[in-house]
């Protein structure tokens, strides 16, 4: 369950990053796009951690 909650925590942080960037201004900026991409990548890594954790649990 901890690994699933880990994903939820990263998703909340990703949403916070996106909210701050949207609040900052409507113009498109390269660094804003990179920050959003990095937040999404963090969520993806957390999801990979869940998949690996559950695979180890089910196989082992």
TrEMBL record:
It is a multi-pass membrane protein. InterPro entries: DAGK, DAGK_prok, DAGK_sf. A divalent metal cation binds at residue 18. ATP binds at residues 18, 27-29, 36-37. This is Diacylglycerol kinase. The active site is at residue 11. Catalyzes the ATP-dependent phosphorylation of sn-l,2-diacylglycerol (DAG) to phosphatidic acid. Involved in the recycling of diacylglycerol produced as a by-product during membrane-derived oligosaccharide (MDO) biosynthesis. Mn(2+), Zn(2+), Cd(2+) and Co(2+) support activity to lesser extents. PANTHER family: DIACYLGLYCEROL KINASE. It comes from Aerolutibacter ruishenii. Its cofactor is Mg(2+). Its main location: membrane.
């Amino acid at each position: 369950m901890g690994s699933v909650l880990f994903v939820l925590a990263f998703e909340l942080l990703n949403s916070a990053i996106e909210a701050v960037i949207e609040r900052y201004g409507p113009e498109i900026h390269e660094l804003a796009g990179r920050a959003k991409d990095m937040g999404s990548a963090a969520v993806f890594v957390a999801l990979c951690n869940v998949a690996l954790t559950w695979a180890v649990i089910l196989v082992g």
